[in-house]
Structure formats: structure tokens, C-alpha cells
Amino acid sequence: MPTSPAHSVIVLDFETTGLSPNMGDRAIEIGAVKLEDGVVVDTYQQLMNPGFRVSGFIEGYTGITNNMLRGAPSCEEVMADFAHFIGDSHLVAHNASFDKRFLDAELEQVNARYSGQFACSMLIARRLIQDSPTHKLGDLVRFKGIPNDGVFHRALADAEMTAKLWMVMLDDLRAQQIIDPSFALMQKISKTSKSAIGKLLQSSAT
């Protein structure tokens, strides 16, 4: 089976009613960017009605109001559609453990599955961009000088920023003679200690 390239992935982001689907929290927005050979070829964005009112804190944090959600399709309707968008692509998210929990929980509601694997851009950035003051998405975007419109905590805007950060990290690897980084290498970077990253990258260079 050929090695899957890191530049052909789906980058996704959820906005949610809280921190944990195990506590009854639901997704209220999904945003995703499809990259092929490092180029954005498609995007996906949809609000979804969780079936209950969201808190004032979440309204303020995301800018997604109960009025906006009232006319939105249900989580089940949106996630059944989003499963088709994902297909068999590998997936990337910033703080991927959070987004994976919600993706798994919401897809389970509609008996849908996905075959791709996840990589976490935040964990990778901690290894590759060690001198950034923090590894929050907005701080990394500013630290690397990535153009942005200042919108954060909306799903598609965050997915687009994460996709740009992902490509910047791939470009940084190419500058270190890792010409065509694989998705598996990016996963390996996320699990390698900071002190051992230099050795890993050296052994991965062509």
C-alpha cells in the first residue's frame, strides 16, 4: 500500500456546547478543509441544532447564538452528510483528541464510521515550533506570520487557519530536506519527545 502523503488530508474543527460528549455535550458547528497536494479543493461548513439551548458562555465564546441554531438542521442530519465528505481521508485537527471525541460520538449517533486516522497539529507544532510562546492556534498563526482575518472560534475559520499552519509545518520540513512528508511521519513527530525530534528529522531527510 503506498504511503499516504501529509499534504492530502481533511482538516476539521468543531464548535460544541461544552467539553465532553460523555457529559451530554453536542456539536453545534462543523468546519472542514479538504487539501489535495497542498491545495484547498473543497470546504464544508454547517451549523447544527443540538436539540437544546446553548449557554450564554458558548454564545459569547463562539458567536453562535440560539437564534442561529434554531433553524439549523439536526446534528444527525449534518453528521450523516459530513461522513460522506470525509470519505477515507486522513484527518487533522488542532487539539485533535477533542475533535476526535466529538466526531466519534456524533457519527455513532448515525451509525457512521470513517477509515482514516487522526494527526494533531498542536502536538506536532509543540515539536516543530518549540520557540512559539504558546501552541494555541491563534498564537501559532501570529508567531508564524500566517495571514488571517482575526476570526477564531468559528469552525470553518479555525479549520482554514489549521490547514495553513499544517502547510507551513510541511514547508518547514521540506526546508530540512524532508521533501515529501508522509502522514505517518507527522503522526510519529507528534509522539516523539522534543529532545529526540532533531534525530528523527535527520533520519527522515532524503
From TrEMBL:
Protein name (Swiss-Prot/TrEMBL): DNA-directed DNA polymerase
GO cellular component annotations of the record: cytosol
GO biological process: DNA replication proofreading
Matches recorded under NCBIfam families: dnaq
A Pfam family reported for this protein in Swiss-Prot or TrEMBL: RNase_T
Function: DNA polymerase III is a complex, multichain enzyme responsible for most of the replicative synthesis in bacteria. The epsilon subunit contain the editing function and is a proofreading 3'-5' exonuclease.
Subunit structure: DNA polymerase III contains a core (composed of alpha, epsilon and theta chains) that associates with a tau subunit. This core dimerizes to form the POLIII' complex. PolIII' associates with the gamma complex (composed of gamma, delta, delta', psi and chi chains) and with the beta chain to form the complete DNA polymerase III complex.
Domain Exonuclease, residue spans: 8-175
SMART domains (UniProt xref): EXOIII (SM00479)
Keyword Hydrolase included in the entry's annotation: yes
Enzyme Commission code(s) on record: 2.7.7.7
Annotated PANTHER family: DNA POLYMERASE III SUBUNIT EPSILON (PTHR30231), EXODEOXYRIBONUCLEASE 10 (PTHR30231:SF37)
One Gene Ontology MF term: DNA-directed DNA polymerase activity
Keywords assigned by UniProt, alphabetized: Exonuclease, Hydrolase, Nuclease
Catalytic activity: DNA(n) + a 2'-deoxyribonucleoside 5'-triphosphate = DNA(n+1) + diphosphate
Organism: Vibrio paucivorans
Gene3D superfamilies xrefs: Ribonuclease H-like superfamily/Ribonuclease H (3.30.420.10)
